[in-house]
Amino acid sequence: MDHFLYRDGLLHAEDVAITDIAATVGTPFYCYSAATLTRHYHLFTEALAPLPHLVCFAIKSLSNVAVLKLLGDLGAGMDVVSGGEYLRARAAGVPGERIVFSGVGKTRDEMRLALTGGIRQFNVESEPELRALSEVAVSLGVRAPIALRVNPDVDAKTHEKIATGKSENKFGVPIAKAREVYAEAASLPGIDVVGIDVHIGSQLTELAPFEAAFTKVRDLTQALRADGHNIRRLDLGGGLGIPYTRSNEAPPLPTEYGAMIHRVLGDLGCEIEIEPGRLISGNAGILVSQVIYVKNGEGRDFLILDAAMNDLVRPSMYGAHHDIIPVVEPAAASPAQAFDVVGPVCETGDTFAKARALPHLAEGDLVAFRSAGAYGAVMASEYNTRPLVPEVLVKGDHFAVIRARPTFDEILSRDTIPEWL
């Protein structure tokens, strides 16, 4: 469910007409619904009750500080994968004890940043990282709390570029080797073993891969406790998918996901951490764009928009689908026309959809890409010297620009010409 609905013939974000935002901000722009973000966060907290738990929002899906503050004020923790994301979480007012640091390539500077600023735990992905973290912690006179990320060799049955739990993926330590690595962790002076971490991929539409991975984590928990480790947290990652079309079969609900966690892991007495991103932010955002031209081609028609692949890269990168709808509600009997929906970037890959059936659209009309809140603005670039699109947050009947569109002067000022040129 989201809060982007037609009202009086116009698409609204909660109680604000999209046309009003477009008139103020210009296009393209991202628009997020505070009510949707709030509702989706609470779906997870309710699904995990009464187990002790912390829902850590995966910042990589949507990193605007205003969104992080909204979720942090609700009690959310944060899952970060870089020093920059750590600083975003802190800027949003999230305390260090609610921040989990994940990622395969943490640098010593990032470790030092988190250890001095406060951290709940590091999700360690390799033996070299474990040793480096211990050295940094010792140099600061502290011990670093860690969960070792284990790779359970489970097929997440998702897109190959967002699968992370198979043996050929770069993530984590093979689960068969976990007891050996935990033994080394316990021997290191700067390490405090607190739990186990697992994450098998993103946009999962079945519970079976989760259950297979969590069952392996359960067995490992019992084995590690027998080895003398005080395993008190289980970080289960994220990955629960969202519906990107209105017609496909819906992925499992957070309530079903939570019930499975209860059944598989609920009797271990561990605090459960999860790291959802897409399911909280995905359907909470849209990308709004304007039609520049309608072009009649050879055997196909093109809808040329002012948004491009640098603004929303998922279709080009993953072949991802986003529903595209007109901002002005079409008549019920409006005939459909097949369009290739494209942007203005000089790349054939700058294509959002091929032969997509859409109502009649003309130059100047506004369209919205649904389910664009996750991995949209965060993956945008200034390719072709196209300014980053602004981000807007709506709450009830008002909205605010939470990232402004940079001017060309601001973009050009970042370049420096050497004196010798």
Helix tally? 12
Q: Compute the gyration radius: what is it? A: 23 Å
CATH class of the largest domain: Alpha Beta
User: How many domain modules?
Assistant: 2
Helix and strand arrangement:
Elements: E1 4-7, E2 10-13, E3 16-17, H1 18-25, E4 29-33, H2 34-48, E5 53-58, H3 65-73, E6 77-80, H4 83-91, E7 99-101, H5 108-117, E8 121-124, H6 127-140, E9 144-151, E10 173-174, H7 178-187, E11 191-197, H8 208-226, E12 233-235, H9 254-265, E13 271-274, H10 278-281, E14 285-296, E15 301-305, H11 314-318, E16 324-326, E17 336-342, E18 351-359, E19 366-369, E20 391-395, E21 398-403, H12 408-413
Parallel strand pairs: 4-20, 5-6, 5-13, 6-7, 7-8, 8-9, 9-10, 9-11, 11-12, 12-13, 15-17
Antiparallel strand pairs: 1-2, 2-3, 4-14, 14-15, 14-19, 16-19, 17-18, 20-21
Task: Looking at this protein, list some descriptive labels.
single chain, 421 residues, alpha/beta, Lyase, Ornithine Decarboxylase, Chain A, domain 1, TIM Barrel, nine-stranded mixed beta sheet, eight-stranded parallel beta barrel, 21 strands, 25% strand, globular
Could you please describe the fold and organization of this structure?
This protein is an alpha/beta fold and 421 residues long. The protein folds into two domains: 4-31 and 282-413, Lyase, Ornithine Decarboxylase, Chain A, domain 1 (Beta Barrel), CATH 2.40.37.10; 34-281, Alpha-Beta Barrel (TIM Barrel), CATH 3.20.20.10. The protein has twelve helices and 21 strands.
